[in-house]
Write a structure and sequence with these properties.
Layout lengths: L6 H5 L3 E4 L3 E6 L10 H7 L3 E5 L15 H4 L2 H15 L4 E6 L1 H12 L4 E7 L17 H13 L3 H10 L5 H9 L5 H12 L14 E6 L7 H10 L3 E6 L1 E2 L8 E2 L14
Parallel strand pairs: 2-3, 2-4, 4-5, 5-6, 6-7
Antiparallel strand pairs: 1-3, 8-9
């Protein structure tokens, strides 16, 4: 593994590993870190150049990199991704975008379409709030309640950790839950609003690359209806549910799903 001479890449704690003509660009989700992609780094290092990094405000990113006036919308994170792509001269990119980074990656791919080959959405959502004709999974009262917890700087970490761990989980989610403790409340509040107040449904039809939509059937933030919505509204999409835990209250049985047809196996559970 190597690190770039680019100042921005260093601030993002970007790590480059593997080799190959194609690039996997791995971008994590809210209150997470690049370490969740270690299985992909190990699996694809012989065939791909792999770039992982920490989003501003999270992981080991330089604290000075995060700016409220820049990162109060996901477009700020997309601009960061574009800068990283330009600084590292990344080409033939397949994005692995988890959670918020799926829409961040879509925005970046529209800004630099010549650099991307494909996108993989992991637990993605174009809108988290419900409306009369759309089930995003969250009611306004629930979201406002979380904002109040974060703004009060008391209990929000327990609330988010509880959401992550309110199901049988793997070490990956346990690690994410542990990292929540290191996120500054002001970062969590601003970025949570950037996520929950966003609506990128109208952007989906503009996608210019094939998209693999993936998630488990027990995602605590994204209902399966959202995955179907993405698959229906993206111009070129394939939907695959990954092995995970069913959410039936009387059952804890595992429900296997077929492997992704293009060979990607995204370890989220």
């Amino acid at each position: 593994m190597t690190h770039s001479d680019s100042m921005f890449a260093q601030q993002s704690h970007a790590t480059i590993s593997g080799s190959g003509a194609r690039t996997l660009l791995c971008a994590h989700g809210f209150c997470s870190h690049q370490g969740i992609f270690r299985h992909q780094v190990a699996a694809f290092g012989d065939t791909h150049r792999i770039v992982t990094y920490d989003l501003a405000g999270f992981g080991q990113a330089d604290p000075a990199l995060w700016q409220a006036d820049r990162h109060h919308r996901l477009e700020g994170y997309a601009a960061d991704m574009v800068r990283l792509i330009d600084d590292l001269n990344l080409k033939n990119i397949t994005l692995l975008g988890a959670s918020m980074s799926a829409m961040v990656g879509l925005l970046a791919s529209l800004e630099r379409p010549d650099r991307f080959d494909a996108l993989v959405f992991i637990g993605a959502s174009p809108r988290y709030l419900n409306d009369p004709k759309y089930h995003g999974g969250f009611e306004r009262a629930d979201v406002d309640g979380f904002y109040n917890l974060v703004d009060g700087r008391q209990g929000w970490q327990d609330a988010l950790t509880g959401m992550l761990l309110n199901q049988p989980v793997s070490l990956v989610l346990q690690e994410v839950a542990q990292r929540v403790r290191g996120v500054r409340p002001e970062v969590a509040g601003v970025v949570a609003r950037a996520i929950f107040e966003s609506d990128y449904r109208d952007l989906l039809e503009q996608a210019r690359h094939p998209v693999l939509v993936t998630q488990t059937r027990a995602d605590s933030a994204v209902p399966t209806s959202v995955a179907h919505y993405l698959a229906q509204h993206l111009p070129d999409a394939e939907l695959t549910f990954l092995p995970g835990w069913d959410t039936f209250p009387t059952s804890r049985s595992r429900t296997p799903s077929p492997p992704c047809s293009n060979g990607f196996w995204i370890v989220r559970q």
